[in-house]
User: Fold these one by one.
Assistant:
Number 1:
Amino acid sequence: MDSQDLNGAFKIANLAVAGLSVLSGLSQLFSGFRAFILGIYIIAFGGVIGLLEFQVPPEAYAFGSFLFSFIGRGVFYTFIGVAIHGESIFRILAGGIIFIIGLVFIALEAVPSISPPENMNTEGISIGNEEDII
């Protein structure tokens, strides 16, 4: 398979996770205090995932380096999938889909012929801890 085809598939998968996370977090906000707090976190995680598809800030690698590998992103997605409370059929399906996408990302770490997409590449990202030497 061409790497360009896979970049599109990864972008679709990541945006699906971001959208499902935000929507399920919003639907979880009014289910009690604990669900409200968890919903805020799920919305924030979905927003970060969506943002990383369009721009990668230099601080992202310093504070979230796990998001730049298949296994790190996969574990993060499975965590989000499990954290979504299944009190409605939408949240059950959203959590299950996110969980399965996370397992696929974890499995992709073991396939050497598949390279990470462009936004998961760390080349060209300045970590920000370089000091100017005069």
Number 2:
Amino acid sequence: MAKRIQKETTHEDAAEPIEPPTPAGPNPTAQGLDQVLADIDDVLEINALSFVQGFVQKGGQ
């Protein structure tokens, strides 16, 4: 039968306390995305009918 070799492991790293991550500030990408979504919402409030008609199938297309 084959002998198993056991490797000793030390847990020196586990003894050190883990610092929690610092909270990040506002994400500029998310702010830009929010502005784009707000612009789209404004356009849809004004031109909702024409926007929806752009997706309606016509004559079996």
Number 3:
Amino acid sequence: MALNLFLEEKKPLHYSKILAVFIFTVGVQFCCFAKVFASFCVSPLASVVTHSQLKTMLSNRDIQLFDVRNPDEHQAGRILEAVNIPLGTLEESLQLSPELFQQKFEVKAPQKDDDNIVFHCVKGNRSLKALDIAHRLGFSRARHYKGGYTEWVEKEGK
């Protein structure tokens, strides 16, 4: 488009103008790429809760633990304090008003600046997807238990 403006003026093209347009275009594309890339690049270490950290958070009662497995999986075995919000309904659930969230799940609704929100599933795959959903919705300090229920059972028993 910028090149067309030069052509419409019917002036001789100067390489410096072409170079400036090229640099501007590449710069804009790079900035767009950087923003998109940054949205996916939450520090993996900062977003992961280890088994030891999870145990500490649970013993201090300083956690909002959400099990994103299906209800049948949750019923078959669970971390006692976990609230079941299946991954397929997570986005909608996190957008509920605090009153409706509490009514539906019988716990206080998480707030976007809470640093004690943790998602878990069986092995960490769905909880990582849940983390992405939460981050996109503004829950930037949410984390996930990478080891999942499988690791929990291995270390804690059922």
